[in-house]
Amino acid sequence: MCSLLYQSCFEIHFIKKQQVPIQLDSATVAYFKDMAEKKGIPYQNIINLYLTDCMLKKKELNVSIE
Hints:
With about 70 residues, this protein is mainly alpha-helical. It has a domain at about 5-15 and about 25-55. About 55% of the residues lie in helices and about 0% in strands. α2 (about 25-40) crosses α3. It starts with 5 loop residues before the first helix and ends in a 10-residue tail after the last helix. About 0% of the residues are buried.
């Protein structure tokens, strides 16, 4: 599911989490909830894995505001 090695995904699951309020688009939440149902993983964990993958790969978001 994620591009991290399985061991890394497993280790991240046990890292202390910080609860943060976040506003997400309904379509984005629906996308992750659908994926979660198929994978049998809570959607919050999937979102965390995606964000962790971005962090570890040092991905940059290209955004232009006009």
